[in-house]
Design brief:
Transcription Regulator spoIIAA; 29% strand; globular; single chain
């Protein structure tokens, strides 16, 4: 049996966005960690939230549910939300389940910051 681990941390980008960095496997066992960080993050129109998934190695349906919950929270607060750095396999899954219709995606945190100020 492998150890499934996930770390989720929040920091503030120099241009004001809240960046949630997610590292590891997002599944039923690890989803509470990301859920906690999302719940502790203020969502407002003035503070964009960027969920950096560039170091996410796996995401199951529970993980997708956590991300959709973040979308719902952002939408309710009229807060900008980006998913950043999805690898090609995860992006394919997100397209299959229609999440490309909900989320804004960028390759890097800097690309998301630039898109906000374009």
């Amino acid at each position: 049996m492998t150890d499934r681990t996930l770390t989720a941390t929040r920091h503030t980008h120099s241009r004001g966005a809240a960046v949630l960095a997610v590292v590891g496997e997002l599944d039923h066992h690890t989803a509470p960690e990301l859920t906690r960080v999302i719940q502790e993050t203020p969502f407002s129109p003035d503070v964009p939230v960027l969920i950096d998934l560039s170091e996410l190695t796996y995401c199951d349906s529970t993980g997708i549910t956590v991300l959709v919950s973040a979308y719902n929270r952002a939408h309710g607060a009229d807060a900008p939300l980006f998913l950043v750095g999805l690898n090609a396999d995860l992006m394919h899954v997100f397209r299959i389940v229609g999440l490309d219709q909900l989320f804004r995606f960028e390759l890097t945190v800097e690309d998301a910051i630039d898109a906000l100020h374009a």
